[in-house]
Amino acid sequence: MVEGVESDDFERSEALLSLIKVTKRHLRAGADVPPDYLPLPVVVMADEIRAPYVPQSPAVKLRQDDVAGWVRHALLCAAAWGRLRSHPIA
Fold it and tell me: Which pTM does this prediction carry?
C-alpha cells in the first residue's frame, strides 16, 4: 500500500506526493533514486509542500487519477519490502 498527500498546487495539478521507500523508511535527501522509478515524476517533497518538518526526501508526484503510476509505485514498494511472491506458471 502507498499513500499520498496533496501538493501545494493540488487545485491546479490534482497531484499527490508519496515518499519513495526502498525499505520501511523513505529515501533520505540526496539518495540515489532506484532506476525503476525513473519513468515516474520524482520531486523533492519539501519543494512541493511548504510546511514545517516536511522532509527533503525524494517523492513521486502523481495525479490522483494516474492509476498506472500509483500501481507502479505500489509494486516497487512491495517488491523492495519483499512482499511479492513469484508463482510458477502452470
Answer: 0.87
